[in-house]
Amino acid sequence: MSNSLFIDIGSCQRQKDGEDCFGDTIYSKKIPEERRVISILSDGLGSGVKANILSSMTTRMAMKFMEDNTDLLRSSEIMMDALPICQIRKISYATFSIVDSELEGKTRIFEMDNPRYIFIRNHRLLAIKGREFSSPKWKERTISVSQITTQPEDRIILMSDGVTQAGLGNKRYPLGWGRQGCIDFVLKEIEKEILKAEIGINPNNDGKVIRLAFPELTEERRKELAKEIRKIAEEAKVSIRAIRRDGIDEAKAKQKNSEITEDELKSAETEIQKITDKYIDEIDKILADKEKEIMSV
């Protein structure tokens, strides 16, 4: 995967009516030296403060184990041993979903007792097969493990059963929102974003795939697109030149404070200009290739 890509993480929570805090916890951490991002969702059994404390404990323990690359099954047993047991269900107060992503594209997903994650690629819902493991000590709990080679614009959505069970018992959702309700919501949100972009395309959402029908480009539309691309390229150049200016200003400040010599300042200015020219040339090449592609009939 290209070094210019990044992993974007977002979250949304709602506490149970009448409660002051969330029963689930979301925890993400970057590990720069490994070009890796770990995100964990844990749901505490029940609701309110107690559930929040238990889910927080679970995410912190899970993060430590993931950072240390500890065997997942062994880690899960330690977490279940450390947390209290529900006297009715006879299980520990721990559920989790973990996404362990590397910028090179390798992503592992571990789940225990949370609803299965949703995976969207190219506006399409995809089902990824995972393997299941059981702990000899906690036979009633299983861990699902999936591995994905991620691509640009992939979306991985985690959720707790507070989401899938939303609306449980009312007339509209007697069995709760369910996983399909979550899928419908996600696709609808993607559809809204496409419409908001005002690209002149109306998406067709059938509940599994969002289809975009692109009309054949006229010569006038090709010219408009080429003009827009030139504008984007120029904005990118302006940003690069601003970074060059900041870099040179920083070097000058260091020379003024006697942190570097006059010769070192000149060397830094030359190196910064070389890097600037390199990326400006890359933008010009990408622009020329894209213009040629757009104008070719």
Strand arrangement, major sheet: 1-2-3-4-8-7
Mean pLDDT, rounded to whole units?
86
Low-confidence stretches: none
Q: What is the beta-strand fraction?
A: 15-25%
How far is the first residue's CA from the last residue's CA?
30 Å
Question: What is the N-to-C succession of helices and strands?
Answer: EEHHEEEEEEEHHEEHH
Silhouette: globular
Give the count of helical stretches.
6
State Rg.
Answer: 25 Å
Which percent bin holds the helix content?
40-55%
Q: Report the major sheet.
A: 6 strands, antiparallel
Secondary-structure-derived class: alpha+beta
- What is the number of E strands? 11
Question: Secondary structure elements and their pairing?
Answer:
Elements: E1 24-31, E2 36-43, H1 48-67, H2 72-82, E3 96-102, E4 106-112, E5 118-121, E6 124-126, E7 131-134, E8 142-149, E9 155-157, H3 161-164, H4 178-196, E10 204-205, E11 210-211, H5 219-256, H6 262-295
Antiparallel strand pairs: 1-2, 2-3, 3-4, 4-8, 5-6, 5-9, 7-8, 10-11
Give the gist of this structure.
The chain has 6 helices and 11 strands. By secondary structure, it is an alpha+beta fold. It starts with 23 loop residues before the first strand and ends with a helix.
Structure notes:
By secondary structure, this protein is an alpha+beta fold. 42% of the residues lie in helices and 19% in strands. The chain has helices at 48-67, 72-82, 161-164, 178-196, 219-256, 262-295; strands spanning 24-31, 36-43, 96-102, 106-112, 118-121, 124-126, 131-134, 142-149, 155-157, 204-205, 210-211. It has a 6-stranded antiparallel β-sheet with strand order 1-2-3-4-8-7. The chain has a 3-stranded antiparallel β-sheet with strand order 6-5-9, covered by helices on one side. Strand 1 and strand 2 (36-43) form a beta hairpin. Helix 1 (48-67) runs antiparallel to helix 2 and helix 5 runs antiparallel to helix 6. The chain is globular, with a radius of gyration of 25 Å. The model has no long low-confidence stretch (mean pLDDT 86).
